[in-house]
Amino acid sequence: MTARIVLVRHAEPGRSARGRAIGRTDVGLSRKGARQARELASNLAATGVDRVVSSPSMRAVRTAEPIARACGAPLEVDDDLREIDFGAFDGRTFASIEREHPGLYATWMRAPTAVAFPDGETWPALRERAERAMERIAKTGEGRTTVAVTHLGVILATLGRVLPVADEDVFRLTIEHAHTSWLDVARGLPRAYP
Q1: Mean pLDDT of the chain
Q2: Tens digit of pLDDT for each residue in 66-81?
Q3: pLDDT value of residue 185
Q4: What domains appear along the chain, each with residue ranges and CATH number?
Q5: Which of 12, 65, 76, 83 is the catalytic position?
Q6: Which of 10, 12, 121, 151 is catalytic?
Q7: Measuring CA to CA, which residue among 146, 128, 126 is closest to residue 137?
Q8: Is there a catalytic annotation at residue 83?
């Protein structure tokens, strides 16, 4: 049996997130983000959503709540859907990270999957966590459509497993805030479609 998963990148976060490495730092939505969440809810309500699963981050939950309401679906929180942990860089501006850690910052910008954030998470760890979440969501969502509201890192890690691209090339994908990516998972094998 097939499980359909609609990956949703959370809507635009509040102004305090701009220009910063925001992983575990909790921020809400901007006005534009709240509007994006309402529009997503309206669009997804017509697609037969059975359940909504969200990262515990406020920006994800605030995106997921209107979707769950509009679809009449339960809202669950899954810790494995949270963004990559930037460790000591979390919440800091990109400019300050570049200034204080120029070598590590240059590697991060050139080869993001090769970076180990100080006191944070690596790309392989994120990829493993994202895979675990998708497998669980697919298994418990067989025959249903589940919206999973999450973050850029989790979406890229998931699409990197589905699309025929190398890990580092997945960062060439453009996934804007409030973007949806649709997956069908049959027999544990995901397939992306427009």
Answers
A1: 93
A2: 999 999 999 999 999 9
A3: 87
A4: 2-193 (3.40.50.1240)
A5: 83
A6: 10
A7: 146
A8: yes
